[in-house]
Amino acid sequence: MYEKTVQAITELVNDGTVPGVSYAFIDDRHVQTGLYGAEALVPSYEPLKPNQLYDLASLTKVVGTVNVILQLIATGKLALTDRVHDYLPAWQDTRVTVRHLLTHTSGITGYIPHRNKLSANELHEALLGMHVGENFEQKMVYSDINFIFLGWIAEVLLGKPIQTLITENVLQPLGMNDSTFQPADPMQCVPTELSPTRSLIRGVVHDPKAFVLKSHCGSAGLFSTLNDLIIFEKAMLGNSNLPITTGQKAELLNDQTPLHHQWRSFGWALLDAKLPTPHRCIWHSGYTGTCLVLDLQTHQGMVFLSNRVHPKAPNEAFLARRNAIINTYLSEKSSLVTIK
Predict the structure, then answer these.
(1) What does the domain layout of the chain look like in residue ranges?
(2) Inter-residue contact 24 to 322 (CB < 8 Å)
(3) Does the domain spanning 3-336 belong to CATH 3.30.428.10?
(4) Helices in 45-176 by DSSP H: which ranges?
(5) What's the pLDDT tens digit per position in 287-318?
(6) What is the pTM of this model?
């Protein structure tokens, strides 16, 4: 199955766009997996091994932070209309709410000089000193800062670092036992960039803000395996062992932006599937070359893991190819759907 999608994935490796890919297609209870290519090209070639840890980058947002926040909302400890200022008083703008952060419509903007050289405390203070620009509510502008703030709000409410909260409230209950924010063995990790300042990044988060903020970063930092992400997708596609309520899962398919036309849900981006009938799917990507697609209506999903920033970032040619693979997958999976 999925011959065209698999072919597109292998071509991505064969023409050198990415070193290698681990992938999975989930159709209800059936799972098809594969891996192809290398995990490292420098300092020497290493063939890709099964179930290695990948730096998920921004998939941390939807695997982890979104679910922690929605759990807080489900238990009444937090509301979508709550103001950020009420939990983070150093943030001066009183208009921005939890909904704005979850949908990337906060309009938060600004420039932080020498950001990557700051200490964690200095970066924390600088982020809270940013301002709201003209895009507030009017435009969806994707920004890590929204999910860093959400993580800090969860910390205020629950008294633990956001990465600890993700581990305790999402990863452990789902049985994602290989997933971690602190890999014990770098060689179990697929490397990312060969950086001029950090050398070969392996087993340590690639994202510069997450590298500085460490356990207090809800926008990036999670490492996970193909098998664990299959566990996550199967939980999301089913109705048991969900990390959120069934009602919240249904709400993920709605445009949750204030103006309801920005194609963004709670953390997840929305996209159209044409068959078996027109409906919405959710998806998200990570800068390092990772991607999740979920069709909650047909109980189908795709996990795509690569290290497209190895050995050199940003590799922008990858983006159009990834999008084409997603479209091929959406087209191909429709022929396998059985309406329940």
Answers:
(1) 3-336
(2) no
(3) no
(4) 59-60, 66-74, 84-87, 98-102, 120-128, 144-158, 162-166, 172-174
(5) 999 999 999 999 999 999 999 999 999 999 99
(6) 0.97
